[in-house]
Design brief:
heterodimer, A: 248 residues, 2 domains, six-stranded mixed beta sheet, four-stranded antiparallel beta sheet, 36% helix, globular, B: mainly alpha, two-stranded antiparallel ribbon, 15 helices, L-isoleucine transmembrane transporter activity (chain A), AAA+_ATPase (chain A)
Amino acid sequence: MTALLEAKGLEIHFGGVVAASDVNLQIHEGKNLAIIGPNGAGKTTFLNICTGYLKPSAGQVFFNGKGITRKSPREITRLGVARAFQIPQLFGEHTALENLLIAAAARERRWAPFTRLGQIPERAEMMHLLEMVNCVHVADRPVEELPEGQRKLIDIAVALALKPKLLFMDEPTSGVASSEKFAVLDIVAKALTESKVTSVFVEHDMGIVERFADEVAVWNRGEVLHRGMPDDILSHADVVRDVIGEEI
Amino acid sequence: MTFMSLVPRLAIPLLLIAVALLPFLAPWSKVMLTLALAKGLAVLGIVVLLHAGQVSFGHALFFAVAAYSAAFLGQAFGGGELVSMVLIGVASAVVVGLLVGLFVVRYRYIFFGMLNLAFSMIVFSVLEKFYHYTGGSDGLQVARPLVLGIEMERPAFESLLFYGGLVIAVIVAWAVHRYFDSPIGHMLKTIKTNETRLEYLGVSARRVLLVGYLVSAALCGLGGVLMAVAQGIVTPEYAWWIRSGELVFIAILGGAGSVSGAFVGALVYEVVRTYASAFAGDVWQMILGFFLLGIILYAPRGLIGVYGSFMGRIGSNTASGKEAKRRAMEAAE
């Protein structure tokens, strides 16, 4: 199996904190990879390096065999890597639909000054995307008025609007009420399958990991400790002790 | 559809007609209105940047660059020709806008504002000190130019400037309105709300802001040329920071971010300034100052916002009150 994204020997320190120490990881096409680990283990740092927000002090990242280590978030996005954030990064004054339309216009490079945003050809496609994430009924509401759960979904939809090959999601269910977590991720998982996107998501809820991940990578102190199938990993003694605690 | 719900839609055409007819009733108002139009065009340039959440305290720079280009052209060709003066004035504002813009779009907020101020003060000093080329603080005369080869008498020329300026202002306002509603115009707005996401959509925020910056430089340039030919003289004061501040003042007075507010603000400002300086002598700036204070404290959406809520209140007796208010706001923007 060829790797869609491959990290080799990533190193980064913030003062005395080791956020990445010889991180090697391959991300395979068509799989949902969950990244788990205690707080401060370097999970978000890994996402930040892969999407160009941080430059590692050593090591390299390849996407489709192409080096992307020194590229900016903008260039990496253009190659087909999208990102959804732990805190939704949306255009607050714009409506949910407009947020998606802006993403579609960016994807298709619609720079003509006299086309109206609301009338670009991707409008129907974006409405469909809103449907996929169950947000059609709030299409015309400014996103700053919407509850966090919906904002999370729209944030993911904005990323999907770019038609990425790979999607990074940083805690897609944080800020979502625990009673709704599964429902939200069901929606996301369905949208991912329909869009045929490979995904990597950071998650703290083991129930979610068990249900949605095809593979799990365990992080601690800037290192990838284990990697494998969810069942094997979640019952692994070290993982139970370091990550899951006494839950199991 | 009730009469009241029609008013907001008709407001702008009615105002336009009123402004267009005013010189017939009061011929002296023509020059004042032309100056208001010139400032309105420049203020529209400020409004474009306000959409990105950025305030420039140096945009008089482009006003002056275009005005002086027109003046140089006029002096070089024995009076010059109006259309070429407008085109070359705007073009030079855009070229200078590109040079300054490539640098300042890397900065935001106070740094953006102050860097613009710095550039404008450099140009101000150059205009003051290079006496042999710029006439120093006396400035340069701008003789009445030909219009497409035709020589015009003063009253006819003033009418042409005013009505020509009015037509251009309407076209430009429409174009800016469309630009704001285009994908790249909406992206300009996202520089204010979430630049991080914009970059993560694969879009260069700097490039989006640069496009807005060039549009705003062009608009200020257009205003500058119109002002230069209407006044018949250009002075370094065109580039002075007070002029830049005045443009920002009018933008906020009219309604920050509103296209029609730029012109309504400029019109009110010019009228208040003309009368206040005639009747209140030395204290007119203070009157304007209190006026701005009132706007910021009680009507942060400016005159256009005041108008919008006024229409909403009148209409609230009817079923379509809310609708009228919404439409008034939409029409205003």
